[in-house]
Specification:
heterodimer; A: 232 residues; alpha+beta; five-stranded mixed β-sheet; two-stranded antiparallel ribbon; 42% helix; B: 78 residues; mainly alpha
Chain lengths: 232, 78
């Protein structure tokens, strides 16, 4: 417990020195809240423009640092588990707070990364994914498997019905070509979740291949409602 | 995928973000970038004292070091 307090103090000192946020205000906030919220949702501290810019730069640096640690540890990047893929995409996407980005990793037979591509980028709550484009890259690099990933700027780590439908759509296209869709990673709320880990990855075709674009939407209203509990 | 090229690109991005965040001049930014390239980013922050930087810069980098240490422990993943 004492070590936790010391860590929090150290964290707050570093954060306030770098961003210019007032120490007392931050200290007050963490009495009842998780200190990491400040980095993930900086507006809760009601920062001025300069402080907000500094927090953004700090987040940018942290995302870059996390990515470099992966690059420095490996000669080549291999996604041999959902954890490896999750950590990688977390490093790539956790800094994206203002828009949704959809990425695909194209893998060889040993699950080494051939290429990682940003397939689309949208607004804070929506992005359009073009299955035809994903297929084009997959065939061009002669991959054996793909892993899908995108971020939820709103922080949800749950797979929305649109996320699940998109995954199925990609499986419908790739399964007949013997290209495996190994996982779909969601990054949000300071962590990531893996569809494979949850046992929800489809491994069969549900419908005929459909190449129409898919809109990945914001969190469904029903889920938003479920998050709010009326206590009266 | 050319990992070396990606690493180089990311070192530059990281040094740029750091320079803007800490208000570093061009020379200091370049010196830090060279350190990243020579020793790697993890080693750079583990051996900050050997980077021979101005005390003010070192102080700010120590704040960064404290933050990333805590974030690493919190996530305990990467």
């Amino acid at each position: 417990m004492r070590s936790d307090t010391r860590h929090t103090e150290k964290f707050l000192q570093g954060l306030t020195t770098l961003t210019g946020l007032p120490y007392k205000k931050v200290q007050q906030y963490v009495k009842q809240n998780n200190p990491f919220n400040i980095l993930e949702h900086p507006r809760i501290m009601d920062p001025n423009e300069k402080q907000l810019e500094k927090i953004g730069l700090l987040n940018e640096f942290i995302a870059s640092y996390n990515l470099l640690k992966i690059y420095e540890n490996n000669e080549k990047i291999t996604f041999n588990s959902s954890t490896a893929a999750g950590q990688y995409f977390y490093a790539l996407l956790s800094g994206m707070k203002d828009r949704e980005r959809f990425m695909v990793a194209f893998l060889d037979r040993s699950n080494n990364v051939i290429e990682i591509k940003t397939m689309s980028e949208g607004t804070v709550g929506q992005t359009a994914v073009y299955p035809r484009e994903i297929l084009k890259y997959a065939l061009a690099c002669d991959c054996n498997a793909v892993i899908l990933a995108h971020n939820h700027p709103g922080g949800s780590q749950n797979f929305s019905p649109e996320d699940k439908a998109l995954t199925h759509r990609i499986v419908d296209i790739f399964h007949p070509l013997e290209i495996k869709v190994l996982d779909h990673i969601i990054v949000g709320g300071g962590n990531y979740s893996s569809m494979a880990d949850r046992g929800s990855m489809p491994d069969y075709c549900k419908d005929p291949a459909n190449y129409e674009p898919v809109a990945l939407g914001a969190i469904p209203i029903a889920e938003k409602r479920n998050r709010f509990q009326n206590t009266r | 995928m050319n990992l070396e090229a990606l690493r180089e690109l990311e070192y530059k991005k990281c040094a740029d973000a750091l320079a803007e965040l800490l208000g570093l001049d061009w020379d200091t930014k370049e010196r830090i970038l060279k350190c990243f390239q020579r020793t790697g980013i993890k080693n750079f922050f583990q051996h900050l004292e050997s980077a021979d930087l101005a005390p003010e810069t070192s102080g700010k980098l120590q704040s960064i070091q404290a933050l990333i240490e805590i974030l690493d422990n919190k996530r305990g993943r990467i």
